[in-house]
Amino acid sequence: MSDKAESSDAPADWALTDEHEEKISFSAVAPVNVQVRHLNVQVVPPIYRGLFKRQAAVDEEKASPKLILTDINADFPPGSITGIIGSSGSGKTTFLNVLSHRMRSSNLKITGQPLYNESPSLSTVTHAYVTQTDVLLPTLTVRETLMYAAELRLPASVNREQRKRLVEEVIMELGLKECANTTVGDGFRRRGCSGGERRRVSVGIQLLGSPSLIYLDEPTTGLDSTSAYNLVKTLKSIAGKGRTIILSIHQPSPGIFFMLDRVALLAQGQMVYTGRVDEVMPWFETLLPPLPPHVNPADYLINAAAIDVRTVEAELESLARVQNLTNAWKGEAARRFADTKSPNIAPTDDYEVDVPRSGNAPIQRTARALVSRTFKTSFRDPLGLITSWIEAALMGISVGLVFLQLPESSSGIRSREAALYTAVGLQGYLMAMFEVYRLCVIEMPVFDREHGEGVVGVVPWLLSYRFSHFFLEDIIVPFVYSATTYWMMNLAHSAIRFFLYFAVVFLCHIASVTFAGVAVAVSRDLATASLVANLSYTLHTFACGFFIQADSIPIWLRWTKWISHLFYGFTALVFNEFHDRFYDCPSGDARTDAQCISYRGDFIIRSLAVPRPDNWRTIPLVAMLGFSVGYFLISMFILFAKKVDITMLGQKKNVETKEKRLELPSQKISKVQLIDVGLRNYSLRIHNRGSKTITVLDGINTDFEANKVNVILGPSGSGKSSLLNLMAQRLQSTWRTTYEADGQLLLNGVAADGNLVQSLCSYVTQDDDALLPYLTVRETLRFAAGLRLPQSWSKEDKIRKADEVLDKMGLRDCADTLVGGELKKGISGGEKRRVSIAIQVLTEPQILILDEFSSGLDAFNAASVMSVLTQLASEGRTIITSIHQGSWQLFKDFGNILLLAKGGRVAYSGPGTDMLGYFASIGFKCPATTNPADFALDVVAIDLREESMEKKTREKVHILTDAFKSKKQVERSFEGKLPPSELKKYEKRMPSIFTSLPLLIRRGWLGFKRQPEVPNARFFNPLGLGIVSAIYFSPLGFDYVDVQNRIGCLNEILPLYFVGLLVNVAVYPTERDIFYREYEDGAYSTEAFISAYTLLEIPSEILAAAMFASLAAIATNLKRSIAFFFITSLNALSHSRESLGIIFNTFFSQQGGLALNVANVLLSVSTFMAGLMSIDQPGFFKGLNRISPLGYAVKNLTPYSFRGQTFACTDAQRLPDGRCIISTGEDVLAIYNLEEIDAALNLGAIVVTVVVYRLIAYAILKLAKTRFRIRRKL
C-alpha cells in the first residue's frame, strides 16, 4: 500500500509501492504441469421432448450448432500464474470449465483433452475452482465461513490451532479484517458484506484447501483496483511456492497484467496468443500499430482481439484484423507446440469427467463441521428454524380442533379413520414437500458446490444433514403433532397406545423426509423434484388402505401396499386405536349384540384389511425403519451416480441481413430537461435485529450535474451501492432490517419527493437477475422496448429502437443466443451485463443510475458502454454511475467524481479534471504514469493486512476526509432549470394494460415452450394423479366395500389443490421477483402482471382438468355421464389453489418454506372441513367451510355422484334382519349430512371462490411493494 510522500514546498509523487509480503503458511504441494493440445468445443442445442412433440431449445426455428473453442493449444507450467483475457463471449469461462472438467453437458462435442502431469485424469492432482458467482451461506460471518472451509478442506495433519491461524492469515491477506465478524449476506434479501467482500471470501475458501492447481473465473469482479491488485499479488506469491494458478480476468490494470507470468488471449473462441507476458508485446509489434502512450497493454490487446459490431464498417474491419491475428498465431503455435507431447484426440463420448475426490479432511471432522454449520445457520435464521415447528403446531391444533373429542358413534368411527390417516399420510406428505423445497432451494446448491470440489462426500453429507435435523425437527415435529392431536381427538385413553402412536408418526416422518431426498437426488429443479415426489407419494397414498380398501385393490396392483411405508403406518395406527375397542351402538351393546357388528374394533380392523388383525405392532415399526434406511441408500446411490449437468444453449438462426442495420432510426423519446441532482447531509444507517446499528453513509454533500457522466469511486464496502439504492428509492425495510435515512435529495436545488425521483430515473442494478433465461438477447430487448417505450410509437419503431441499442451495446454477435442461467449456460457474464444496461438505456431516461456498470466487462466493451453513456450525457441527461476499476481510457470521460472512503465518508467531490490538483494541494500528488482512477482508490484504501499499515492508512483516510469537510463548497446556480414541481410532466408513464398485457402473454408463452419443467409440472401432476386414480379404483362397483372406495375416489380429487400449490411454489417466486424489478422500472402494472399470469394459466388448467376428469371420474366409473365429466372438470379447474400460492408466496416472499407450510396446513384443514374426513366437526369449522372451495367441491361432487345409486352387500356384511348396512346413495349422503345439499348452488359457489381468491391475491400483490418504508429523520 502506498505511503504519503513527505513534502516541504512542492508535493512529491505519491509512491505507488506495496512492500507487503504474503504470509499464509501453506504446506508444500506437488507441482502440476497442465498441457492443452488441439482442444475443440462445439455446442449442439439440446432437444427437449415436450408433452406432445419434440421442440427445439429455441422457438420454431431450428437452433444451429455453435463453436465455442477452436484448436486451442496452451501450456500452464507449475509455479506460474496465467491470465486468460479476451472480450466478453470470447470463451474464457468455457475454457476454464473444460480445463477443470466441470463441463458435463450432454450436448457438448469435445475433442482434445488437457493433460495434468501427462495424465488425462484431473483427480490425480489437488485442485480448486472459484466460480464466477458466489455460493455462500448468508447467515454465517466471514470468519465462520472460512473456518468451516478449513475444517472441510485441510488434512488430518493440520490441527485446530493451525487451522485457526491459517484462517486469520487468509482474512488479513485478503483484506477482510473489518468484515470478519459481519454476516456474509446475499446482497438481496439478507444484507451483509459488499459484493467485493463476498468475492474475496469465495477466493479465500478455495485458498484454504492449499491445492496444487487453482482455477479462478473472474476473481476481481466487484473489487476496486487496489483490492484487485492485492488479491492478484497474493495469488502471485502463492504461485511462486510451486502452485499452478489459471485465472480469467476481464480488465486487468497494468500492475496486475505485468504481475502475471503468462497470458492467453482469446478472440471468438480461438487462441490469438499464449505465452510469457514479457514476450506478448514483442509478438504483436509486427501485427498491430504501436502501443500509444499511457495506454494499458492489456486493454490494448483485448481491444485488438475484439469484434466491434456497432456498425457494419467497424465489424468488417475488426473481423479482418482478428482473422489476421488468428492466422499469424496458428503458424506460430504449430512451431511452438510441435515438439511437445500431445494428448490423444478423443470424441465427446470418451471425454473423461472426473469423479471429484473426497476432501482430505477426516470423515469424522467433516461430519462434525457439517453438523455444527447446520445448527449455526439454522439458529441464525429463526423463521427458517421454526418453520417446521410452526407447521407441526398449526397442523396439530387444526387437526385436533376439526376432530375435537370424537364421539364413539358410527360417524365418529369414520372420523377416527380419517384422523389416523392424517397423522401418517397427510402430515408426512406436508413434511416431504417442505423437505423437497428446502433441499432444492437452500441445501443442494451448497452441497453441489462442495461435492463438485471434492470437499464433501455424499455419505458424510447425508449423515450429518440427517443427524443435525434429527434434533432440530425429526423428534420435535412428530412429538408436537402427536401430543397435540392424540388427546384432543379423544383417541384410546392409554399411555402405551399414545407412545405407539408417537412412534408410528415419528417413523413415518423419517421415512417421508428421506423419501424427499430421493426426489431431489433425481432432479435439483424444484418443479421436477416436486413432480417426482408428488406422484410417487400419491402411489403410496393409494396403496395405504384408507382411500381404497387394501383387499379391493386390483389384484395386479395389490402388491404395491407392501412397498408403501404409509400402508404400514396407517394399518399400525388402525390396530393401535381399534384393537379390543367397542363403540356406542344405538341398538345395543357392541360386545354382545349381533346388530352392532360394525361398532366392534376387530370388525373395523378387518374391514380396513390390516394384515394380522390379532397382532400388528412390531412388523410395521420395523418396516418403516427399513423404508427410511432404504430411501437413504437410494438417494446416496443416485447422488453418487448422477452428476449435475451444465447445459450449453445454442444459437437461434439469424434471418436478418446486415444491411438492415443502416435503416436504424435515432428517434428521441422525449424532450430532455437539464436536471442536477444534489445531496445534502445524506446519511444512511442500517439496523439489523439483534445487532448494533451500522452507519453506511455519513453526511454526504455532493452534486451530480446534467450533461456529464458523474462517477462514484470507492473501495469495497464504502457504501457506493447503498447510496445508489437510496437515491433510486430501491431500499425497503423488512421485519429483520430497518433503514434510517437523513438529509435531502435536491433536484435543481429544490428538495424533491422520492416518488418523483424514482419516476424520472432508470436504474441498472449490480446484478443481472432480472433477465429471463428463456429469451434470446434480441427478444429481451424487443420485449423491453414494447413495455417501456411510449405507447404512441408503432411496433416497428420500437423494434428498430431495440435493434439500434443492441448495436450500440455491441450485442449483435449474441443477439440470437438464449440468455441462460446457472445450469443452462447461454451468453457470457459480460454480455448479460450489457443486456441489463441496454434495457435501461432503451428508455433514454432523464436520470440514469448505474451500479458498477463495468462489472464483468472487458476494456473494449467497458469503453463501448462508456461511449453510449457519454452520448446520453451530451444530450443533457444526468448519468450517475459507480465503478470499481476505471481505466485511463474511461477516466477521460468522467465528469464529476464522488470519492468515498470506508464508512461512507467523502474524500473528494467535484469535477474530475480538478481531482488530481486538489489531492496535490493537500500533499498527495499523482505520478504522471499512474492511472488517476487507480490513484484515487489507492489513497482512500485501508490496508488491513498488517496492523502497522492499518493504523497508518486509517490516519491517512481521516486526513483526507477531514480536509474535504473543511473545504469551502462552491455555490451553484440553477438558472434556466426547472424546479421539481415542473418536472412531473416528464415522469415515466407506466403503459396501459392494453399495451403491456399482450406482450406479457407472448413472453410468458415463450417461457412455457422453452422451459419443459413448467408444462411438465402443470400437466403431469394432475395427469399422474388421474392415471393413478384410474388404475387403482377402476372400475368402481356397487357393493359395501365400494362405498368406502367411492368416498376415497372423491377424496382423491381434493389433492389437486396441493398440486396447484406445488406448481405455484415452483413457478411463481421467479416470476414475482422479476415482476418486482420491472414494476420498479415502471415497465407494467400489477394488473397487467396478474392478468397475464392468470391467462397463461387457464389453457393448461383446462387441458389438465379435462384429462384428470376423464380418468378420475369417467374411467373409474364414479359416474359415467357427460354432465358429471364437466362437473368434475370444473372442480379440477379451480384456480383458487394457485391464488392461495400467490397470496402466501407474496406475503412470505423471503421465507418460501414458511409460505409453503402455512398454505399446506390451510389446505389440509380445508380438506378435513370439506366433510368427507371429519363428519362431526365443531360449528366454528362448519362456518369456515363457507369460504373453502374444497367444501363446495365436496358438496357438489358427492351428491352428483351418489344420488340414485344402489348398493349390494355380501352375506357377511348383512345385518341379522338381512338388510345391508348401506343400500342406496342417499344412505351414504345421510351419513355425511349431505342429503339435503343443493349441489348446483355449491357448483356455482366454486366459480365465485375462484374469482374472490384471485382478487385477494391481486390485492396482496398490490400492497406488497408499499408495506415497508425507509424511516426518515427530517
Entry summary:
The protein has 1274 residues and is an alpha/beta fold. Its main location: membrane.
Q: If strands are numbered along the chain, what order do they take across the biggest sheet?
A: 9-10-11-6-12-13
Uncertain segments of ≥5 residues (pLDDT<50)?
A: 1-16, 48-62, 342-359, 655-666
Question: Under the CATH scheme, which architecture of the domain at 677-969 would be assigned?
Answer: 3-Layer(aba) Sandwich
Structural class: alpha/beta
Q: What is the overall shape?
A: elongated
Assign a percent range to the helix content.
40-55%
Query: How far is the N terminus from the C terminus?
Result: 40 Å
Strand content of the residues, in percent?
Answer: 5-15%
Q: According to CATH, what is the class of the domain at 677-969?
A: Alpha Beta
Largest sheet properties: 6 strands, mixed
Number of separate strands: 27
Average pLDDT figure: 82
Tally of contiguous helical segments: 42
The name of the CATH superfamily of the domain at 677-969 reads P-loop containing nucleotide triphosphate hydrolases
CATH topology of the domain at 677-969: Rossmann fold
Radius of gyration: 34 Å
